[in-house]
Write a structure and sequence with these properties.
Layout lengths: L2 H15 L2 E8 L3 H11 L4 H9 L5 H20 L8 E10 L3 E6 L5 E6 L2 E9 H4 L1
Antiparallel strand pairs: 1-5, 2-5, 3-4
């Protein structure tokens, strides 16, 4: 690895130490369905977001709730204290497309229809309002 790339990698690594995040990979639902749930909680305070996810009827909300709890635990571990009410917010959350499994379904007259089983990756960042300003 060249010196310039190494310096850039070290700089990214240092910047990540001050960010608090959690990521879930290869969640077996389509990214489009997951984005509906993610858009519900983007920018919310974490306790309010947990309540929204808890009572959402979407199946993807279970995975996002688990991810949010993990991000809160990561923040608490790095700061050596418990998060207070109204302190933590979801600063950034996004969904990326994961691996697509391609399957064939039998169709009439010897043909086969293609089935695409999609998956997604979700990354969630939490932070305080004072930290962002």
């Amino acid at each position: 690895m060249g010196a310039r790339k190494r310096l850039a990698a070290e700089k990214r690594k240092e910047a990540r130490k001050t960010q608090y995040f959690a990521s879930a990979r290869n969640i077996p639902s389509s990214p489009r369905k997951m984005r509906y749930v993610v858009d519900l909680v983007r920018g919310m305070e974490v306790n309010r977001a947990l309540g929204t996810l808890r009572f959402s009827k979407k199946a993807a909300s279970v995975d996002v709730e688990r991810l949010l709890r993990s991000a809160i635990a990561n923040w608490e571990q790095k700061n050596d204290r418990k998060a207070e009410d109204g302190e933590l917010y979801i600063t950034k959350i996004f969904v990326d497309e994961g691996v697509t499994l391609k399957r064939m379904r039998p169709a009439p007259q010897g043909r086969g229809y293609r089935i695409r089983k999609r998956s997604n990756h979700v990354t969630l960042f939490v932070g305080t309002k004072m930290n962002e300003e």
